[in-house]
Design goal:
9-stranded mixed sheet, 3 domains, alpha/beta, Protein-Tyrosine Phosphatase, Chain A, 6-stranded mixed sheet, UDP-N-acetylmuramoyl-L-alanine:D-glutamate ligase, 21 helices
Length: 515
């Protein structure tokens, strides 16, 4: 009995480590069962943690101190590996995660206690099986917690609704799109702050719960404008946010082939993004990017609100012309009349500026203050921001994960002036969650890469074959493409080839639940 108790204690420590990893991957999968199972099966069902867990079965063969010693060694080794592992996106210990962790541990403890009481000599085997099935214990804990989470979220929702309804004169602006929404949100906030007291949803708080949290924790009676970024993974996600905040101005920055795995069709993506426009009142204002083909051809607008179109390439109400890029950024003319300048790079950022100008004009921000704010704009971190260190220029587009945005970033790289003998380098894992379009979209990316850079580093195995196929087809010289197993592997290789004067573009950065 003594060895069983010791083994149980060791197994409990090991389970804590595995449970933390399982919950981390579940969080990266947005707590959605379908996305988690796509990560879990088949490659990660026997992950490194599970291999360690499988070795914990050895005490079944040696149910004595030899087996306990082996289990202790495996546990110590697994913890050392886990402590050294670096994640790009760490586990965020929200209250939901803490409740999930607690319930998972309670379930493990309860099942373990039953095994000790009734399994007899098979107790060690039963506990070892629990370690192998830790994923499903965590998912069971989430299922158990679901009614609690729904009740808590409903309380938060009602509180946020009360706060919004008490701010009668608050101007609420919704911003959505397959890409460009975060940059547009921040640029618009900077311009409107010249006249108004502005609150924006921070970071990537673009879900219903993120908006609720922003309202409850940050919205105050003195705020005059609330800019709400609205993201979506499935239909009605944006409508849910609109039903809470009731925007009077809506901006749709782009519609692209993002999240086709969950949306299934581009038509569904169009309908979802335009849930924002269709939620606007008759006296509201919709601002849409007319250079986005799927916006331009959309016929499903039902709101009677005024629509303003903006573009660089197509005719629109707000059209940029005489566009000139230089070392200091971009200069352009709006509608052939007013000239503007900005430090930002790329056609995508120019479109985002146009959206901000359209909203600022509607809200009567003085022209000179608009121009001053736009001239001071700084790139949003990880969205085609530029840094120079030790003679190396880094174009950071790591949060851009769509084909259109990637093409814009690669166009900037292609046109970037480098000295003789210097290289334009791109590092990318490609795109995910594009359903049946994923392989072809990544092959197209490879073709564009081949025409835009001197050296390519493809990260991770998810899209490796498709991107490499496009690179070969695009004509990048042999030996100028390196296939890296991870971002750390890519950085190690980059250090060997990099020299002062080179330019490196980071295009997208998949989270840890994509390999």
């Amino acid at each position: 009995m003594g060895t069983i108790i010791i083994y149980t204690a060791v197994a409990a420590l090991f389970f804590l480590m595995i449970a933390k990893y399982d919950i981390h991957m579940f969080q990266l999968s947005s707590y959605r069962y379908s996305r988690y199972f796509r990560w879990l099966v088949p490659g990660n069902i026997i992950s490194r943690n599970r291999i360690f867990a499988l070795l914990m079965v050895v005490p079944v063969i040696f149910p004595n101190y030899i087996g306990v010693g082996f289990a202790t060694g495996i546990t110590a080794g697994a913890w050392l590996v886990a402590l050294r592992e670096k994640f790009k996106t760490p586990l965020v210990y929200t209250m939901r995660v803490k409740r999930l962790f607690a319930t998972t541990i309670i379930l493990f403890a309860a099942i373990t206690a039953l095994a000790l009481l009734f399994a007899g000599k098979w107790a060690i085997a039963a506990i070892s099986a629990l370690l192998l099935l830790s994923n499903f214990i965590m998912l069971l804990a989430n299922f158990v917690n679901t009614p609690i989470e729904k009740a808590i979220n409903r309380g938060y929702y009602n509180d946020a609704k009360r706060i919004i309804e008490s701010n009668k004169n608050l101007i609420i602006i919704g911003v959505t799109g397959s890409f460009g929404k975060t940059s547009t949100k921040n640029y618009l906030a900077s311009v409107l702050a010249e006249k108004y007291n502005v609150l924006v949803t921070p970071g990537n708080y673009n879900t219903l719960l993120g908006v609720i949290r922003t309202i409850r924790e940050q919205l105050r009676p003195y705020h005059q404008v609330f800019i709400v970024e609205m993201g979506a993974k499935q239909k009605n996600d944006i409508k849910e946010i609109c039903d809470l905040v009731h925007p009077s101005i809506g901006i749709v920055t782009a519609v692209g082939e993002m999240h086709l795995e969950t949306f299934k069709t581009v038509a569904n993506i169009q309908d979802t993004k335009f849930e924002l426009i269709n939620s606007l009142p008759a006296n509201g204002l919709g601002i849409i990017n007319y250079d986005s083909e799927y916006i331009k051809n959309y016929k499903g607008i039902t709101s009677k609100c005024k629509i303003i179109k903006y573009a660089v390439e197509n005719n629109a109400d707000y059209k940029a012309s005489d566009v000139q890029y230089g070392a200091s950024g971009v200069e352009f003319t709006l509608n052939g009349e007013q000239s503007y300048s900005s430090r930002l790079l790329g056609a995508g950022n120019l479109l985002n500026i146009l959206a901000a100008i359209a909203a600022a004009n509607h809200l009567d921000v003085p022209l000179n203050k608009q121009k001053n704010a736009i001239a001071r704009l700084q790139p949003v971190e990880h969205r085609l921001s530029m840094k120079v260190a030790n003679g190396i220029t880094v174009l950071d587009d790591a949060y851009n994960s769509n084909p259109q945005g990637a093409k814009m970033a690669l166009e900037v790289l292609r046109n970037f002036n480098v000295g003789e003998g210097n290289k334009r380098i791109v590092i990318t894992p490609g795109f995910v969650e594009m359903g049946t379009r994923q392989a072809s979209a990544n092959k197209e990316l490879g073709t564009v890469i081949a025409k835009s850079c001197d050296y390519a580093i493809v990260v991770n195995a998810t899209n490796r074959d498709a991107i490499k196929s496009g690179i070969d087809e695009g004509g990048l010289p042999e030996g100028k493409c390196f296939l890296a197993d991870s971002l750390n592997h890519a950085h190690a290789h980059l250090a060997q080839i990099l020299k002062a004067g080179d330019v490196v573009l980071y295009e997208n950065d998949l989270p840890d639940n994509f390999k």
